[in-house]
Amino acid sequence: MIIIADAHVDEVVGNDTDFFRMLHSFERNHHDVVFLGDIFDLWIALPRYEKDIHQKFLSWCREQKRHRSIGFIEGNHEYFVAQEKQDYFSWCSDSAIWQDDRGNLFCHGDQINRRDKNYLRFRKLSKNKIMKSIVRYLPFGPQIGELLKIKLKKTNLEFRKKLPKDEITRFADDRFNDGVHAIFVAHFHQDYLYRNSETNALYILPGWFQSKHVTVYDMESKQVTSHHWQELKQGT
Hints:
By secondary structure, the chain is an alpha/beta fold. Helices cover 36% and strands 20% of the residues. It is globular, with a radius of gyration of 17 Å.
């Protein structure tokens, strides 16, 4: 399984070319793929707001789910994807976590820190049916969306500077008590490993935006490694 976190793909930044080159390179192997949120710097999955890069990504996912499992979890930079685009993926979720039947849990991670009350209120206000209806018909909506993208980069700064290890530990131990063995978390843009036993581990994954690294998870051996996407072995 290949897991991609925090790519923040944006044509203005110019990282879209590398991102789609990476996706096409995956076609030479047979790994399942999980997109762990904030894949785009902003994705409001509604008419007027979507761009060609969003449609290009959806086309790739729809084609590839015929050959492998393609999973997607919404990050805090994505809105209404699970509600509007679920048919393009093998599974797609806008909830805090998604768990498979093998004890693996996938989580964007923006809701782990329960002390970050301002962000949690913002998320609750911005991701609901009422806001979705307002945004769908909002005059100058796409322009306002661009302002939202700028705001997202400036919010939560205090809580993003330091990894909330106590909150991460609490979250992980609760999930381990429920029978989960491996937890994969994005959002924090850094590598971090927490274990409470030899069999239970939480992995915070590197952000693709900074490192161009993806995470490879061998579900048989339980081995987790991080590689630059160009270093992945093809055809396996």
